[in-house]
Every structure is written in C-alpha cells, then in structure tokens.
Amino acid sequence: MNDAELAAHLAHCAGQILLDVRASNMFEGKSLGKAGDQTANQFLVHALRQQRPEDGLLSEESKDTDERLSKSRVWIVDPVDGTREYGEERSDWAVHVALTIDGVPEIGAVALPGLDGGIVLRSDRPGNVPAHEGSPRLLVSRTRPAAEAVAVAEKLGGELIGMGSAGAKAMAVVRGEADIYLHSGGQYEWDSCAPAAVARAYGLHCSRIDGSPLIYNQRDTYMPDLLICRPEWADRVLDLVREIDG
Fold first, then answer.
1. How far apart are CA 31 and CA 26, in angstroms?
2. Per-residue pLDDT tens over the stretch 78-120
3. CA 20 to 30 Å from 122, out of 14, 71, 97, 170?
4. 237 lies in a domain?
5. Which domain holds residue 61?
6. Which of 90, 122, 154 is the last residue of a domain?
7. Residue 17: inside a domain, yes or no?
8. 81 assigned binding-site residue
9. Is position 78 annotated in a ligand binding site?
10. pTM assigned to the model
11. Mean pLDDT of the region 207-236
C-alpha cells in the first residue's frame, strides 16, 4: 500500500470507527466528542507507527515531541476535525490524514463520514472542481466568523456560508459548494494539512492570508490563518486582505 492509499484507507477506517462510537448511544455531547477523539486517535497512531515506523507523527490528540522535527517525512493527523459538530451529530466534521515531506503537504485524505454514504477526498485522485458563475460564496465558522472574511465578502458582494470543521469547509470548495475559505481566527497544523494537500491536488489556491506558502512540521504548530479558494479569486482576495489589514 503506497502512502496515498494508506492515507485514504486510514481516514476511511477512522471515520467508520467514529460512526460506530456515535451509533453505540453510550455517549452524547462533549463526552461523545471526547470518546470519538480518543478512539480514532488510538487507531490512527497505532496504524501509522506500525505501517510507517520511520516517519514522524503529529496528532492533535497525542502529546507532541521534538522527534518529528528531524524527520523529512511527517504524518499530520486530526482524528476528529470538528469535535463539536461530531458531538452534536451534525454532518460537517472530518477526519484528516496527511503526509508532509520537508514541510510541504504532499499527500492527504479527508474523510467526510457524516455525509450520506460518507466520502473520502484524496490528493492522488483529484477531479475537476465544478464551475460556478456569479458572486462568490465564502465559508466562515458557524459560531465565530472571521472578521477578515466578513469584510472581504462585503467588498466582493459575496454570500457567507456558515459551516463547522476546517476540513468540511475546505472540501466544500473542492466539491464546488463554495468558492473561498478565508480563515484568520487561528488554527493548528492538523486543522489544515490534509485539506491543503487535497485542495492543492485539485488545483485550488492554498496559502497564508499574506500570500506566503503553508509550511508544516514546525516546532510551533500554531497556524494563524489560511486561504483556500478557486484560483481566479486568489489575487483579488489577497489584495483585499492587505487593504483591510493595512
């Protein structure tokens, strides 16, 4: 099984585990989110350490160490991206499995198990992003919309769409359900690594909101912002962000 196949397989399996935990009816709310996080993380970490023992590993739900910093190949995973949405039994949550090589998100898989039938979007099997005409659709947090995104939407005459997890938002752009995902409220590497790998493979623009590249496997895993969007909107959005922040 090559790296891309492994990423997709693990994302799918972790998603099925999470659905089983939810279907057990043993947990609800925050306790469901915690149980799902722990169970999916245990599976992903054990599988990666068994299948790729020489690679580095960073997971939201495991204690970080400096070991990964000396590695060229580092897996970055988020067992449940959108724990709140998962715990509330919504559909806008995801599982992220990515492989970075020298800090670049080269391979990724994002599972969306909560959708009907469940899907896994993969960097090794990109498709065409469906066309969209008209004003842009911008994705924002359903609970904490980023100020820059709201301001950019106003200047573009765009529509704001509230959604849960970062992975669900990024994949909504990949799937043609939205055009721009602009986030400036702070995230961590595991929130965007797999989505960025998939989005890049689909030909979308991926960067920080100042236009600089997304670089992973850093000592400080905090990543304040990102932009994932259709390429035709990238320059306009970046210019507006500079104008707003300037």
1. 9
2. 999 999 999 998 999 999 999 999 999 999 999 999 998 899 9
3. 71
4. yes
5. 3-122
6. 122
7. yes
8. yes
9. yes
10. 0.95
11. 97
